[in-house]
Amino acid sequence: MKEGNLLKNLLCLLLLLASSGCSNFNENPKVQGARQIAQLEEEGRKIVLHEGKKLLERDTDFVIDTSSARICVFERTESEMVRSEEFPMEIEKTFKGAFDNEPKLYASHLPVGTILHFQLENNTEHFFVKENMSESYKVYHCEYYNDER
Questions:
Q1: What start and end residues bound the annotated signal peptide (predicted)?
Q2: 81 near 137, Cβ under 8 Å?
Q3: Would you say residue 92 lies in a domain?
């Protein structure tokens, strides 16, 4: 009777090890983490690509940051906030329904090369741009379309 239990326990242990993916290969945790981050970034890019195509069909003004997988749908506002020129981000490409490998910041209508300065005021995110040197800054209210934070 004891041999049957021992054999049964050994068989259960082997099945448990096999089903849990136990192996002799231990991956470097940094490599494993980098792979998981890359997978999350790729999933995020797929989501914003899909949502961006929908917004493009509706002719909406938006900016896509592929590195954070967020879409900022914006409209002009007349905010009198104090403008900071920290953390500038440049529009790298016009969004036409697809992503290249390198560019990180796409826009539906803002010109390529436009510098955006994002700023938080009263828990509302804004960005402002100065499209050419003779103009004053234009302020836009940013509503994140797909932000799950």
A1: 1-24
A2: no
A3: yes
Residue 11 covered by a domain:
no
Give the count of domains, the chain: 1
| pTM exceeds 0.90 for this model | no
Per the domain annotation, does 6 fall within a domain? no
> Quick one: 125 exposed, middle or buried, by C-beta within 10 A (0-12, 13-18, 19+)?
middle
Contact 36, 134 (CB under 8 A): no
Q: How far apart are CA 127 and CA 142, in angstroms?
A: 7
Q: Is residue 87 part of a domain?
A: yes
For residue 147, the model assigns a pLDDT of 62
DSSP-derived secondary structure letter, 22: -
**For residue range 37-57, what is the model confidence (pLDDT) as tens digits?**
889 888 888 999 999 999 999
pLDDT of residue 24: 55
Q: Are strands 93-94 and 138-144 parallel, antiparallel or unpaired?
A: unpaired
Side chain identity, residue 129: V
- The boundaries of the domain holding residue 137 are 30-144
